Amino acid sequence: MVATSSEAPALELRGIVKRFPGVLANDHIDLAVAPGEIRALLGENGAGKTTLMRVLYGLYPPDDGEILLDGKAQRFRSPTDAIHAGIGMVHQHFMLFPSLTVAENVVYGREPQRWGLLDRTAAARQVAELAERYGLQVDPAARVADLPVGSRQRVEILKTLYRDARVLILDEPTAVLTPQERQGLFQILRELASQGKTVIFITHKLQEVMDLADHATVLRGGMVEATVAVADSSPEALCRHMVGRDLLPQLAKVPQATGESLLAVNNLVVLDNTGRRIVDQVSFEVRAGEIVGLAGVAGNGQSELVAAIAGLRSPAAGRILLNQDDVTATSIAARRQAGLAYIPEDRNRVGLALAASVADNLILTGRHNPTLTQRGVLSQAGIERYTTDLVERFDIKIASVREAVDHLSGGNRQKVVTARELAQEPLVLIAEQPTQGVDVGAAESIHHNLLAVRDQGRAVLLSSAESSEILALCDRILVMFEGRIVGELLAEELANDPAAEATIGLLAAGGEV
Amino acid sequence: MSTHRATQDGSSSSQLTQRLRPLAAPLLAVLGALVLGALLMLVTGHDPLAAYRAMFEGALGGRKLANLMATLARATPIVGMGLAITIALRGGYLNLGGEGQLVLGGLTSALVALYLPLPGWLLLPVSLVGGAVAGAAWALLATGLDRVFRVPLLIGTLLLNYPARYLASYLVNHPLRDVASGMSQTHRVPEGVELAYLVPGTRLHVGALMVLALVLVATWVVRRTRVGYELRMTGLNPDFARYGGINTVRLGFGTMAISGSIAGLVGAMEVLGTHHRFIDNALTAPLYAWTGLMAALLAGSSPLGVLAAGLFFAAVHTGGFGMERGAQVPRELSRVLQALMILLIAARSRLLTPTHRDAPAEKASSS
Ligand SMILES: Nc1ncnc2c1ncn2[C@@H]1O[C@H](COP(=O)(O)OP(=O)(O)OP(=O)(O)O)[C@@H](O)[C@H]1O
Ligand SMILES: [Mg+2]
Questions:
Q1: Smaller CB count within 10 Å for chain A: N or C?
Q2: Which protein residues are within 6 Å of ligand 1, measured from CB?
């Protein structure tokens, strides 16, 4: 299965150059991938991975360079051309129609037809079968707009599998998948590779590279830094190629005495659009000096629970106490006033105004702060200082704070959201997938920041698909399944348990421990 | 920070081109329209150069610049209405009720001027404010229908134009009619409640300065204040705004009230500055509200852009008259030419800025 470089490449990129105003995103990139190979593409946020793949997929015309498939030069004027040539892509910035159903999105472009019209029943059946076969849980009839990010990621993957591509590009497909789902996906990819298909896989999780890929190509500053055989490499070596330094040692999580309850949820019920209890009688509390983790497979109510606490969704029953005050019926503004900050999982639709500048996105929640506005007037100098300071502290890679957010790479967008919310010095921070898509270095620094909130005697509710993240940071872990909390685990008890992740996975799948 | 940034050419010249880029499209469009128009005139046997000279002269020249003054006078209500719509559009609210708000504003100001027993010096400001309040009330009614009965704002504002127009029409044809004049109009407003002319002998009145001031204030508010920031963010992504604690409901009512009050004020200014009475159809026939809407859509919801677009539309229009007079281009042809220019500009610019609840696809923009 491991490809050798002597084999004729299924896919070859030669000297690809792509410029954006003020940025050279791809600087003469060469890449050759053999048939049947799984190639990992690595690099820091903003290194140019997504750009390169979008060039390959026909979304951007390259400023220079060539694309060859099986030795034949290609010119893609649009993704349609690329799809015809057998390329499929799972997008980091999802490309789905929010108002259509899952099934309609998946079959889009290759619809099963009946009398020239879309055959809905056939579409739903095919998609259900596909989802079943690949172990990706989705409801084919659900509207994409109503789905949490994790489920949308599965739709994005199914869409590409449905099209039966020869070359599969997956741009951070695992950003919000649970370990179990990830294993399922890897199984599929290995199977496809063994059938001779070519897979290009972008991730920031080095362990995934070790588990899955044959070779890894590391991009840095728009150029190829190295291509290595994974068998001869290690996560540490890959990391050195990416960031030019070693990772810091493990997080130092010192035990911390917990104080009073800063966030409490009592018998909370949230209904979905069809009136079903998507959150069902949930109760828990988060105390001062504590990070509580919310684990589970996406779609089991975590997103809705968090949205209710943040005030974006109104609960059907139950109470929410913030710093011991009942805030169940109060506005979002009042909750923020009382010290709540929120990193939402859906950064592009909720957490950011993509067309607005980085500065405008960074000041949203601090806009009443006297350094930013005085008597209702924006202070240009204050904004400049405040935002450039955040850009530096969180290492957001941009040309200027006036740049529009939709020009930023995925990881840098995430950093904008995380930086803004952490800058509020919240009493209670709700962090939902706070490190999705950020590179290892940045993830590490965000983890330090979350721990700092806890160590300063404030509270964090961390919802993450990444059980390793939850295990590393949390003092207590709540596992959600079908709208209920089905397990509560203490960090101390899990600390040296090698089966900890598996335990969480089992609970999250509705099993018993 | 990142190494490949070193290649960026962040020189001031490239920044300048960046800034000028939005202007390139409309200029190209005007040029294209002029070329197409010239072809059209050649085909129909007119001399394009003479016609364009007449058009230019008709829009900007004239004895003692009389034509320029006419253009500015015409631009006043267009820019005013464009501004009203732009402000709402900034927040993602499509106010198609400018016409009704304009008419009710004009009517109210005339009624205040005619029938409110106030000392003369107070009557003018109260009459203007009355117009603004009437416009705001009409816009708020549509906003309330949206909130309470889920009548989309777009439809509510549009439909409310009809009752406003017919109510005004009824009043000036029946109970409030100046029977002696033999026309469908109210009595003349008392002396002293008129807006002064800026240039004697022209129709350019003080309202032009008020509109200019409003444009400048609006630009400042949108760019430099917290409320303006909240409005911009709501227009760009209402979910983001709500998430950040912006009370989008209150903002919606406030914005629509301001939008409607500007429209009402424009009506009051036309009544007190141009007609000196409320004349049936005088505010609707010249299509100020719709031309203003077009200016707002073209300007991509920037108040300064509306100023430019409004002036341009007014100039095209008065220039069209000039062409008819000076180069014997028939009215129909001059109208076709005007439409061509507007169409080409519209084709070249982004017609609509994102409004609420659209987002055709997640495009390159979700996760
Ligand atoms: N449409 C665009 N306009 C301007 N600049 C862009 C655009 N898209 C990407 N860039 C810039 O190009 C560079 C590479 O971005 P890209 O999205 O390829 O990074 P990436 O390697 O995928 O990062 P991440 O890991 O964060 O997803 C970044 O500096 C980014 O700001
Ligand atoms: Mg990317």
A1: N
A2: A 20, 23, 25, 43, 45-51, 92, 397, 407-412, 437
Q: Which residue bears the tokens 């259509």?
A: A100
Please give the mean pLDDT across all residues of chain B.
85
Residue with tokens 């009688």: A281
Contact A346 B366 (CB under 8 A): yes
**Chain position carrying tokens 């995934």:** A208
Q: Which amino acid, B249?
A: V
Return the pLDDT at B355.
32
Beta bridge partners of A117: A114
- pLDDT score at A164: 80
Closest of B86, B82, B87, B80 to residue B255, by C-alpha: B87
C-alpha dihedral over A136, A140, A146, A147, to 10 degrees?
Answer: 0
The mean pLDDT of B280-293, rounded to a whole number, is: 92
| Cα dihedral sign, B65-B70-B76-B79 | negative
Q: What is the pLDDT of residues A66-77, one digit of tens each?
A: 999 999 999 999
Residues 347-366 (A) with a CB less than 8 A from some CB of B: 347-356, 360, 363-365
pLDDT tens per residue across span B132-168: 999 999 999 999 999 999 999 999 999 999 999 999 9
Task: Report which DSSP code applies to A249.
Answer: P
* Residue A273, CA distances (Å) to A139, A146, A163, A320 in order: 14, 8, 30, 21
Calpha distance A222→A332 (Å, rounded):
41
Q: Which CATH number applies to B25-350?
A: 1.10.3470
pLDDT, tens only, A262-292: 999 999 999 988 888 999 999 999 999 999 9
Give me the residue from A27, A344, A353 closest to B236, CB to CB. Answer: A353
Q: What is the ipTM of this complex?
A: 0.89
Q: Which of B116, B141, B120 minimizes the C-alpha distance to B130?
A: B116
DSSP string, B120-178: HHHHHHHHHHHHHHHHHHHHHHHHHHHHHH---HHHHHHHTHHHHHHHHHHHHHTTT--
Per residue in A459-502, pLDDT (tens digit) is: 999 999 888 889 889 999 999 999 999 989 988 777 777 777 77
* Inter-axis angle of helices B288-298 and B98-115, nearest 10: 130
- Atom in ligand 1 nearest the alpha carbon of residue B2: 29
pLDDT band at B351 (very low <50, low <70, confident <90, very high): very low
Q: Do A397 and B2 touch (CB under 8 A)?
A: yes
Instruction: Indicate which residue's Cα is closest to atom 29 of ligand 1.
Output: A46
* Predicted local confidence at residue B93, as pLDDT: 94
pTM for the predicted model, two decimal places = 0.88
**Crossing angle (nearest 10°) for helices A500-508 and A179-194:** 90
**Contact A254/A473 with Cβ under 8 angstroms?**
no
Per domain, the residue ranges of chain B are 25-350
Of the pLDDT bands very low, low, confident and very high (cuts 50, 70, 90), residue B8 is very low
pLDDT digits (tens, 9 = 90+) for B76-90: 999 999 999 999 999
Residue A428: phi, psi to the nearest 5? -125, 120
Q: Which residues contact B157 (CB under 8 A, 6 or more apart)?
A: B94, B95, B96, B97, B100, B139, B142
DSSP B188: P
Shortest CA gap B305–chain A (Å): 19
Q: Which of A24, A202, A349 to mutate to test the interface with B (most CBs of B within 10 A)?
A: A349
Q: Which ligand is nearest to the CA of A23?
A: 1
